[in-house]
Amino acid sequence: MSVQALDLQSVTALVEDATAAPSMHNAQPWRFRFHRDDRTFQVRSDLERAMPRADPSNRALHLGCAAALFNLRVAAAHAGWGAATELLPDAADPQLLAVMRLTSPPSPGHDVENDLALLHPAIRRRHTSRHPFSDEEIPQPIKDALSAAALLEGARLMFPDAWHVQTLLDLVDDAEGRDAADAAASEELKRWVRVGAESAETAGDGVPDYAFGPRKWRGKAPVRDFAAGVSVPGRETATFESVPQVAVLGTTDDGPRDWMVAGQAMERVLLQATLDGLATSLTSQALEWPELRWTARSPESAMGFVQIVFRLGYGPSGPRTPRRPVNEVLDIE
């Protein structure tokens, strides 16, 4: 792509790919600003979409914005651009989470940008699945590839042993009980739930009822039930995995820069898993309670802080959830 080809349509296409990223409750807490003169994107947080109860430190908000940044990097590489990215470039402007400047096309070979471009087909295919997965075990080479994907972005992904998996599942159960008893948490969740044909079809954000998946009858899969006790006509029940396949992604430290690293690693893992034929979902319930989060890590691991928990397996990929129009999240200067 030439410099002249970077018109409004091209910029819009890059941001459309960026906004396909996952975020807590599909709140899409991001904004983008493109500067024509130096071909620079700013990725900014949208604090009106923050969740004070579930995410008081805005850690999950950073993860979502970082996932969008990673998609933007992938889209730029696919379009033929190199990119120079700086995280948290201005301490006086904490809502400015990253700056990405488009540079000349990368040279042929297996450099970072060319490797990123290979992930592009997965951006629109990746969806959160709240459906049952099969009992088919994920092959070790695929697990190794996912761990390597996280490491490329500066984070660690590990597949916990049976004892640690059960600990994580117990923590999720504990968190769900706390959420149900917490009126503020319930009200905050309801803000992002879209129930009813009209609401689900017109929404540009949140989780529509067609993406809830079936109600869990049996099984231990850590799947959040967005129905929150609301009856959804036609919603089925199903048996989920009795032995879920989960992975935890973490960082050494736990500040905003670590969250930005983790969010990019999270999306890289999700895109790689999608290319490998896996269905995916994310679990954060236990991480939303500080007194539970610290026990999510394994004491035998060098991982300092768990940032997100993945549920992986073979099954339906889940439906596409709504996204806000690009003109609502992009400014061009």
**Computed structural class:** alpha/beta
Largest sheet: 5 strands, mixed
Number of helices: 10
Give the number of DSSP strands. 13
Provide tags for this entry.
333 residues, single chain, four-stranded antiparallel sheet, alpha/beta
Structural features, described:
The chain is of the alpha/beta class. Helix content is 34%, strand content 19%. The chain has helices at residues 8-18, 59-78, 112-117, 140-152, 162-181, 183-190, 197-202, 256-275, 290-293, 326-329, and strands spanning 30-35, 40-45, 82-87, 96-103, 156-158, 193-194, 207-208, 215-218, 237-239, 245-251, 279-283, 305-313, 330-332. It has a five-stranded mixed beta sheet. The radius of gyration is 19 Å and the shape is globular.
Question: What is the topology?
Answer:
Blueprint: H1 8-18, E1 30-35, E2 40-45, H2 59-78, E3 82-87, E4 96-103, H3 112-117, H4 140-152, E5 156-158, H5 162-181, H6 183-190, E6 193-194, H7 197-202, E7 207-208, E8 215-218, E9 237-239, E10 245-251, H8 256-275, E11 279-283, H9 290-293, E12 305-313, H10 326-329, E13 330-332
Parallel strand pairs: 1-13, 6-7, 8-9
Antiparallel strand pairs: 1-2, 2-4, 3-4, 5-10, 10-12, 11-12
Helix pairs in contact: 1-2, 2-8, 4-8
